[in-house]
Amino acid sequence: MTAVTAGTAETTGAPGVSDAAVAAEQAAYEAVFDAAVAADERIEPRDWMPEAYRASLVRQIAQHAHSEIIGMQPEANWITRAPSLRRKAILMAKVQDEAGHGLYLYSAAETLGTSRDELLDKLHSGRQKYSSIFNYPTLTWADVGAIGWLVDGAAITNQVPLCRCSYGPYARAMVRVCKEESFHQRQGYEALLALSRGTEAQHAMAQDAVDRWWWPSLMMFGPPDDESTHTAQAMAWKIKRHSNDELRQRFVDIAVPQAEALGLTLPDPDLRWNEERGHYDFGAIDWAEFWDVLKGNGPCNEERLSRRRQAHEDGAWVREAAAAHAEKHRVDKHHAEQHQHTGKHGEAQA
Amino acid sequence: MTSDSWPLWEVFVRSRRGLSHTHAGSLHAPDAEMALRNARDLYTRRSEGVSIWVVPSAEITASSPDEKDPFFEPAADKPYRHPTFYEIPEGVKHL
Amino acid sequence: MSTTPVTSGAAVITGAALALGDDALVLSHRLGEWAGSAPVLEEEVALANIALDLLGQARILLSLVGDEDELAYLREERSFRNAQLVEQPNGDFAHTIARQLYFSTYQRLLYGQLASGDGPFAGLAAKAVKEVAYHQDHAEHWALRLGDGTDESHRRMQRACDALWRYTGELFQPVEGVDVDHAAMESAWLASVTDVLGRATLTVPEGPRTGAWAAGAGRQGLHTEPFGRMIAEMQHLHRSHPGATW
Asked: Could you report the predicted ipTM of this complex, rounded to two decimals?
């Protein structure tokens, strides 16, 4: 038995064993892993897993966690200007949840042997991505509603299948996240409905926001299946359960009637019901824009990342102080306990 | 002292009286007192709990998956530990 | 908007509810400004919890005497009754913690007294005193860690405690309709803050606890310059759409 140290990878194979023996052992482990995945069992942190599976999970969970914390910014942008106290409370609670979701996800990544510090470093240095959607600005209050309805709606469509992801800690984190996300989407929809049914100016504000957020929301599902580099392997490992295009279609089918109920239009002249397919057809997505934003040319890429770095740097002295305090008092406590121990000992002898 | 990284803690929450604490997740904190408070804020903000334990992740000793067989399989061939092992004539109650 | 009968008793209650409600509203707003910039993710969650508790208190208090949104969004700067302490800008994390320590210690004593009375705020206070006890605990734990952490954190925390000291006297100026023993509260506050600062290896500031003309000023609608900018930001959207519902 060994102590669990923050989900460190199990190392297998003892020194001095022949290559053939190592290979055989490796194959045996792999067979057990493949069988577990095939049987829809969950892989847990200390189970053997292929290095590529581990790396793929770390990449995906990290990107997801980064998206939650970068995603706080566009909405926090409106906390201080929320137009009613009720909306202000809702928005604060929502942005807080996003910090919470980031925490659940970083924890899931840590079970794979990657510390949060490492992941934050990679985010701050641009070596790991977050969802491109957060590189778009929130220009009006209605953007808060549009993010809740469309962006969170797209996220939920992506995330619900992840609750059955083959990696246990990720699946469990997603169960918690999805429970909380449904409040996010509903509050966004409700906020947009109030605007749509409000004054002419409010209605226009809502329509403008939906016009700006619709296409980027569709891009959130990632590139089309035939261009997606990670999809096939991720699906084989049951990290991912549905392809990008499948999920995108599911989202469109759900969103169209919701837009009608809102009394708002979606900015796509090609959007219409296809009886034969049993789905809505929709227009071509501007993938050039998608790749451009991904490469860093979005309206807010620079701003989001530098704000995040700034917060981290400004907080360094606080984190150091708490660590230093803990260190001092750990020593104090240790001394106190020793003292007490000796005291008791003395008593017993007396 | 320049380290600004905090250790990892595992959080266990008792969701209501009468139930045992179950693992809720983990978080970072500089010390136990702050870990408890962070856990309260993070894992019980929707009234999910009435009691919390926090344990430094590094202090947990776990069985290894490699020991799965010797650890857990011997228990599988002792069906006489389970009440369903025993046949009781039909109609006998409260057993 | 609910209309309250205009009697002097009602006016007294209105003044008192505004004083307590504006304190909570304004401090909640300031804490909300931290969203996305806290020193560590766990602290994002903690600060937001405190801000949400305060906003909840503000909404109950303002609703006792009018429409919460009209009161929050349509009053001019000079009509706000909050103490100047809570409107002070966040500064660094040490300033925010010093402000929290001073204010939550006061608010805990205040609500403790109100909860044991039978006045119009007893019900609210009984619920809020539990929230505020947690806020004080949070502030105290951070004060200890910043005061007795590194040289830098000690210096920052001492500077913050010193800078905000002169806004603490106002908290104990009697407010009509807030039926508590302000003098007793003040000595209990001093004892509590002195104890925490001592354990945090910090020095109790020596300066006056009120500015030259600051005593009771916030309660009378005299605020500091940053407050005007704060409510301009807070109110602008609501005021841009007169009569709209959100």
From this structure: 0.95
Q: What is the CATH number of the domain that holds C146?
A: 1.20.1260.10
pLDDT tier at A339, thresholds 50, 70, 90: low
- DSSP code of A4? -
What does pTM read for this prediction? 0.91
How many structural domains compose chain C? 1
Nearest to C38 by CA among B89, B38, A182: B38
Does residue A286 belong to the interface with chain B, where contact is any CB pair within 8 Å?
no
Model confidence at C123: pLDDT above 60: yes
Band of pLDDT at residue A4, cut at 50, 70 and 90: very low
The C-alpha atoms of residue A285 and residue A274 are separated, in whole angstroms, by 18
Residue C205 lies in a domain: yes
Where do we find the tokens 């590529």?
Answer: A52
Say whether C45 and B38 touch across the interface (CB within 8 A): yes
The total of other beta-carbon atoms located within 10 Å of residue A89's CB is 19
Q: With an 8 Å Cβ cutoff, is A320 touching chain B?
A: yes
pLDDT in tens, A284-319: 999 999 999 999 899 999 999 999 999 999 999 999
Find the CB nearest B41 among C46, C141, C145.
C46
Helix H or strand E segment including A3: strand A2-3
